[in-house]
Amino acid sequence: MVTEETTLELEEIIKRRIKDQAWDDVVRKEKPKEDPFEYKKRLTLDQEKSKLSLAEIYEQEYLKLNQKKTEEEEKPEHVEIQKMMETLFVKLDALSNFHFMPKPPVPEVKIVSNLPAITMEEVAPVHVSNAALLAPEEIKEKNKGGDLKTDAEKTPTDKKRDRRKRKLMKRVKLKEKERRQKCLEKKSEPGAKLSRKASEAQLKKLTKERGTSLLKDDGRDKALKSSKAFFSQLQDQVKMQIKEARKSQKRPKKQELSAQKLKL
User: Fold this and answer.
1) What angle do CA 168, 173, 176 make, to 5 degrees?
2) Which of 38-42, 159-163, 222-226 has the highest mean pLDDT?
């Protein structure tokens, strides 16, 4: 009830506050603009040392990124509290404003992205055999000595290495040759057929002895395989005969000495 006493009391209170300069200005209200699910994204800083090792932490992060995340199940109590808060805030907004305030937008669809943002595709075409996708090292083994070099590209160490290899191979071949020669000498018998090298060595040994001479084959008795070779050989024989005839004619005759000319 508005009476004269209440109005007088209000006037006295107003006068006293004016004298004391105790003003109560209206504080402007601003609703914070936040995402409804912003509280889920906020990180809680933990000052305690983690019990997991660094490798285990990286493993968990990798599994979270690659594996499908299980959708979080909301508790029914939280859902009920959220609905009650929404209805209460709508009523308070309607009472504390002079004009109609619509409801704040609520996300109707919850988007869960389990797939990566970028999907990588293979560069190679689909209709290609797997043999064409092999690396060069898989087809042919890599040379242990390195890449092939020309003589101009080789360093002094490379040249010395090649020289040592050649000398080693030469020594190995020489030892093998000597071993085979010794084996043949042991196995050779008086009536057995000798090898070419053994026969050459035996022939040299015989020619060194006195009273032996080696007859050389001039190749005249060889079979002629073409007419050209036959006529050339015939011509050579004729020339040789002519030369021998001329030499016999040019020989001076021996002077016949008589006993009468020697007499005094």
Assistant:
1) 125
2) 159-163
Sign of CA dihedral 217, 219, 220, 224: positive
Residues 68-114 have pLDDT tens digits of: 555 566 788 988 999 999 889 888 887 877 777 777 776 666 666 66
**pLDDT (tens digit, 9 = 90+) per residue, 134-154?**
777 777 777 766 677 888 888
Amino acid at 146: G
What whole-number distance in Å separates Cα of residue 132 and Cα of residue 123? Answer: 13
C-beta of residue 36 within 8 angstroms of C-beta of residue 107 = yes
Three-point CA angle 218, 223, 224, nearest 5°: 100
In angstroms, the CA 115 to CA 118 distance is 8
In angstroms, rounded to a whole number, what is the distance separating the alpha carbons of residues 56 and 63?
A: 10
pTM: 0.24
- Is residue 197 a contact partner of residue 181, using CB atoms and an 8 Å limit? yes
Token pair listed for 88: 């209460």
